[in-house]
Amino acid sequence: MSKNERIIESWNANAEAWIDTIQNQLIKSRVNVTNEAIVSTLKNLYPTRVLDMGCGEGWLSRTLENEGINTVGVDGSLTLIEEAKRSHNDGEYYHMTYEEFVDQPKPFSYTFDVAVFNFSLLAKEIEPLLSAVKDLLSSSGHLVIQTLHPFNFGHPYVNHWKEENHEKIGRGYKKPMPWYFRTISGWKDVLNGVGLTIVDCIEPINTESLKPESLLLVCQKSE
After folding, report:
1. Which CATH number does the domain housing residue 82 bear?
2. Structural domain span for residue 136
3. How many domains does the chain have?
4. Which of 57, 190, 38 is nearest to 116 (CA)?
5. C-beta neighbour count of 11 within 10 angstroms
6. Tell me, what DSSP letter sits at residue 33?
């Protein structure tokens, strides 16, 4: 089984545990820092329509909709998409893996002002996905990525696969998940390689530890 397949298998196996983690606010860094960071970053771009890639159970989509921003969610876990629809009856959600998103015709006849990956870019080969999402952006649109801050993982500070066992984020998780660690220059290289330029870099800080909780990259199409 490839690492990409293991990522999908892990999310399917752990979907109920993830819903419990989010609904009970068990990840303190999200509650205290990174949720507000991603919402404020997106609102400051003044979008009319947002594409939430890897939307999970839909908390970010619901939050943006409550702010009057039309938001569409996409996720590869059927359980998570069903929960998103249950929690947000009027929301627009699609059950689609990233590979399916790249390979099949998109269900959208319109463009987006912003596309966001909120802790949801986990694979090594993400260039086709980024290119497909870039094609759905308006001419002045932005792509926003929030990811774990690479400085918090010590050595080796090189691009490489890591494994998440979920022991620090909640209960009931059944399968570990591989994820691909990137340095800051690693993110720059992959984004530049698909014609995206980083126009802002934000490092939300934990005010108690004075360490960054995440890395936020705001990108636009390269000229």
Report:
1. 3.40.50.150
2. 3-221
3. 1
4. 38
5. 22
6. I
Per-residue tokens: 125: 């080969």
> Over the stretch 136-194, which tens digit does the pLDDT of each residue have?
999 999 999 999 999 998 789 999 999 999 988 988 999 999 999 999 999 999 999 99
**What is the C-alpha R_g of the chain?**
16
Hey, which residues does 202 pair with through a beta bridge? 216
CA distance 37 to 84: 21
192-221: b or e for each residue (b if 16 or more CB lie within 10 Å)? eebebebeeebebeeeeeeebbbbbbbbbb
The model scores a pTM over 0.85: yes
Which pLDDT tens digit goes with each residue over 88-136?
877 899 999 999 999 986 778 889 999 999 999 999 999 999 999 999 9
CA 186 to chain centre: 17
